[in-house]
């Protein structure tokens, strides 16, 4: 029993030592490791209206990430117009344990189902590592439905023309009884005044 216990302790120490030194460079610190988040900020995706996409880059390593390049290939030119921001952008460096954000505004040209794919990121893991280029992908927002502007207006517009038509239609049923009441009231008041004089 003691032999099994000792062998487990030795195995545990060996595993702990190998995992603690794993992923570290010559200086003993972990190289840069970037996490890229891609989020669509809009609640409703509408044809012809702006869609805001936010990219957040986090460096969880102990070295700066150098020559960071983010490339967005998920918004083809035949389906989207870029209104603001850049679909591909570069950053010189991201310090360790810090973040950076970028915002892209696109406008869809057509409605329907759309698959929001992930963006690609490439970077060097440290200043010294010229030949080590790390690649990765952002989080994937998934499928989204871009609704037509006509359907969006039906559901969310002020319906001013509808309210004007409603007022015109309801005016006669409310106006005619009011006119009859007012004329009767005027006649009754004039009779009452005449009877008080006598």
UniProtKB/TrEMBL annotation:
Q: Where is the signal peptide?
A: 1-20
The source's superkingdom equals Eukaryota
Q: How does it sit in the membrane?
A: Single-pass type I membrane protein
Gene Ontology cellular component? Answer: endoplasmic reticulum membrane
Q: What sections of the protein cross the membrane?
A: 163-183
Q: Does the keyword Glycoprotein apply?
A: yes
Question: Where is the protein situated, by its record's location annotation?
Answer: Endoplasmic reticulum membrane
Its primary localisation, in coarse terms, equals: endoplasmic reticulum
Q: Which UniProt keywords apply?
A: Endoplasmic reticulum, Glycoprotein, Membrane, Signal, Transmembrane, Transmembrane helix
Complexes and interactors: Heterotetramer of TRAP-alpha, TRAP-beta, TRAP-delta and TRAP-gamma.
Q: Relate the protein's function as given in its record.
A: TRAP proteins are part of a complex whose function is to bind calcium to the ER membrane and thereby regulate the retention of ER resident proteins.
Q: Which family does the record assign?
A: Belongs to the TRAP-beta family.
- Protein name per Swiss-Prot or TrEMBL: Translocon-associated protein subunit beta
Query: What is the species of this protein?
Result: Lepeophtheirus salmonis
Q: What is the lineage of its organism?
A: Eukaryota, Metazoa, Ecdysozoa, Arthropoda, Crustacea
């Amino acid at each position: 029993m003691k032999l099994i216990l000792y062998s487990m302790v030795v195995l545990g120490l060996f595993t702990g030592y190998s995992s603690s030194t794993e992923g570290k460079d010559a200086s003993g610190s972990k190289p840069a490791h970037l996490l890229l988040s891609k989020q669509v900020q809009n609640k409703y995706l509408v044809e012809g209206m702006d869609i805001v996409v936010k990219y957040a880059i986090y460096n969880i390593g102990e070295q700066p990430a150098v020559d960071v390049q983010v490339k967005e290939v998920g918004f083809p030119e035949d389906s989207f117009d870029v209104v603001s921001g850049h679909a591909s952008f570069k950053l010189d460096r991201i310090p360790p344990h810090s973040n950076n954000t970028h915002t892209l505004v696109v406008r869809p040209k057509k409605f329907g189902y759309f698959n929001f794919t992930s963006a690609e990121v490439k970077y060097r893991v440290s200043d010294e590592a010229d030949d080590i280029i790390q690649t990765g992908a952002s989080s994937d927002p998934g499928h989204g439905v871009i609704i037509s502007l006509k359907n969006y207006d039906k559901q969310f517009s002020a319906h001013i023309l509808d309210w004007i038509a409603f007022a015109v239609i309801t005016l006669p049923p409310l106006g005619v009884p009011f006119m009859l009441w007012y004329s009767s009231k005027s006649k009754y008041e004039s009779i009452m005044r005449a009877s008080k004089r006598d």
